[in-house]
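Page 47, continued from p. 46.
Same chain as before, 151 aa.
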Amino acid sequence: MTLRNEFTDALKAAMRAGDAPRTSTVRMILAKLKDADIASRPKGVPEIADDDIAAMLRGMVKQRRESVEMFAQGNRQDLVDKETAEIAVIESFLPRQMDQAALEQAVADAIAETGAASVKDMGRVMAALKAKHAAALDMGRAGAVVKAKLA
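Result:
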């Protein structure tokens, strides 16, 4: 089942259950997806692929995490709770992220595969990681691990 179908099914289930926060978040995801589809049309792509949808979702999560920090600094616990709930809903559609041990093993494998020897080779390592593990990898965390191993 594609992510698009999961969103539609989740929206229907949330509406039936009367879960207003989840309904609102899924509608927000669908609106962002529609915007992304419209933006891709001039390139000749009628609908973005599932990989691009996953990247869009990760971007939405990142944006909300930044908002949580700002709201926490501003003592707005109500907004922190709202954003945190949205993060949980959005992450429910994302593939499970690698744990730290799996991430370090994937980085070690990519370094060995690319023959990287210094931080100058970080781009090649990151490209190899993205090619193999894009869906299950937080590139921000991966970048820090790669830099630490190559330094």
